[in-house]
Amino acid sequence: MGVISAIGNNVRENYGALVAGRTGISRITHIDTVHKNDIMVGEIPTDNAKLEEQLGLPRDSWSRTALLGAIAAQEAVHQAGISDINDARTGLISGTTVGGMDKSEQYFYDYFENDRAWHHINGLHAGDSTRKIASKLGLEESFATTISTACSSAANAIMLGARMIKSGQLDRVVVGGTDSLSKFTINGFKTLMILSDTYNTPFDDKRKGLNLGEAAAYLVLESPALVEKENRTVLGYIKGFGNANDAFHQTASSDNGDGAVLAMEKALKIAGLTPDKVDYINAHGTATPNNDLSEGRAMLRIFDKKVPEFSSTKAYTGHTLAVAGAIEAIYSVLALQNNVVYPNLNFKNPMQEFELLPQTELVRKELNVVLSNSFGFGGNCTTLLFSKEV
Amino acid sequence: MNKEYRIQRYGHIRQGRISLNGIPRFESNETDFSIFIKSAYKNFDTQYPKFFKMDSLSKLALIASDVLLENENEKNIALALSNRAASLDTDRRHQKTIQDIENPFASPAVFVYTLPNICLGEISIRHRLFSENSFFIFDRFNADSLFEYANSLLANQKSEKVICGWMEFDQGKYDAFLYVVAKNGIFAHSIEEINRLYLTP
User: Each residue of B4-48: pLDDT tens digit?
Assistant: First the structure.
């Protein structure tokens, strides 16, 4: 597993911040936006120059999306103990929403004037970061694709990767996502009026909206045969996955969370588990009025009012959009490994619509199954189930 | 994968022509996409006012899915679409609005379409599909991946049918190709056949 986010440059630092209850939300510093005093973000402190140095790249050659992705993917492959990535059929499935938009907006007017930043035009599309990460990992003639389903992109990348291993098309697959902050995203979410002007407060009655975040996160999935052959230490298992469409609105969830209910039902069915086997829910919990109400109602429907301990980690990282499903998959696996439920930061006021209280303190308890939700614009709802044992 | 699936029907929207199973359903000499797709909307008596709020990619997807699903009763249909340009056409519009020095305000109506999978949401809302859906970005039409994905969905009983295809719109150029994979159908479900149907509007 590999991750870079507002709360750390690697898995160890991310876990440290999670258990210490240390948020990564701050004012924005890397982007000069007119909204800088109105919004808070989950920004990665490291600037592009440092990231380029770390990757041994020339200045201003890649978009931040690709830089972050390469850093996290390299950590994941390194941590998995892979010496030769081409020694088995290895794929890369990466989610992104923003692509190279950070560079497009920086050089938008220059494109007409000179060719200095011409290479960033080709870096705009969503597949660019995937291609660059694949080359950085040394993948040759591999299955590499990009999924763009908004905030469920990385969760869908994980689901597709798991399926391709299950159906025998790949032995190993690097799955996850990468998104950097950009004016494009900030201005878009600002017009939807779902950005909070202060720290986001998931599942709180007085929640004001989300904080955007940037991150990259990747996991290495391997087939049982490869795990056995290489004698790997398994960090966790993908037990179930489900995707459904809410079929309600482009950017809002249905009142009763129909899509979320269907996704959770499908994941549980594939896992062959009843809801009572779920020990912890890492909720989507974006802290928008719409999401938390819809997701809360969906959880009540699935768990028949006996909802297990749940929390949203968006108050730590901000909403990392395409990456949310992967970063939270890593947090879910870390929860399983360390038997810990992370606190839902900034929660004060129970919601009026139902009696649901997120976990607000760090809890240490035996965890066997963790459920993670990721819901995206377009009604795209995905649930992943992770387990300690096969 | 032991089970053999079939392609039930396929549709194209390409160069002013809308066809189902190779038979023209609507033709126009209009070269401007927005005028063309509006005349198609009128021709089919679509009666779906939300259409006019959509971006070009979603308009293309909506009309394509309407033609394809005209006589379809099954609701458990998954969606697996793909393209090359993602939502770049609308992304550029959004980018221009936020870089307009005189009036640097984004429009919610534009921003909501700055993701390729929104067109899947629009199809799902229109046809009440609560099924699995994914949108992939490929360099070119990729029958191999769509073939495997549809097989996997059907073999794992994730849905009764799958709509697969290519939904490309960028700078006025468009190319829509959809096909339905199911247990029965008149066309073989194979990579060769998918490529053949893609090339025969």
Answer: 999 999 999 999 999 999 999 999 999 999 999 999 999 999 999
| Confidence at residue B1, expressed as pLDDT on a 0 to 100 scale | 46
* Cβ within 8 Å, pair A377-B115: yes
Distance, CA of B30 to CA of B33 (rounded, Å)? 8
Q: How far is A254 from chain B (nearest CA, A)?
A: 11
Residues of A in contact with B129 (CB under 8 A): 245, 247
CA nearest B86: which of A369, A88, A227, A378? A378
- Beta bridge mates, B180: B9, B163
Domains of chain A in sequence order: 2-230 (3.40.47.10), 237-387 (3.40.47.10)
Residue B103 pLDDT level (bands cut at 50, 70, 90)? confident
pLDDT in tens, A301-316: 999 989 999 999 999 9
Contact between chains at A246 and B130 (C-beta distance less than 8 A)? yes
Does residue B1 lie in a domain region?
no
- Which residues form the domain of B145? 6-199
What are B53-83's pLDDT values in tens digits? 999 999 999 999 999 999 999 999 999 999 9
Mean pLDDT of A103-121: 91
The answer to whether position B95 is within a domain reads yes
Residue B26 sits in a domain whose CATH number is 3.40.47.10
Whether the CB of A111 is below 8 Å from some CB of chain B: the reply is no
Does the CB of A176 have a partner CB in chain B at under 8 Å? no
Picking from B69, B113, B133, B168 by the largest number of A CB atoms within 10 A of its own CB, the best residue to mutate is B133
The CA radius of gyration of chain B, in Å to the nearest whole number, is 17
Domain-embedded: residue B160: yes
Label the pairing between strands A369-376 and A280-282: parallel
Give the pair of three-digit tokens for residue A226.
């490869």
pLDDT of residue A114: 87
Total number of domains constituting chain B: 1
In a domain, B19, yes or no: yes
DSSP string, A140-162: -S--EEEE--GGGHHHHHHHHHH
CB contact residues (below 8 A), chain A span 62-81, against chain B? none
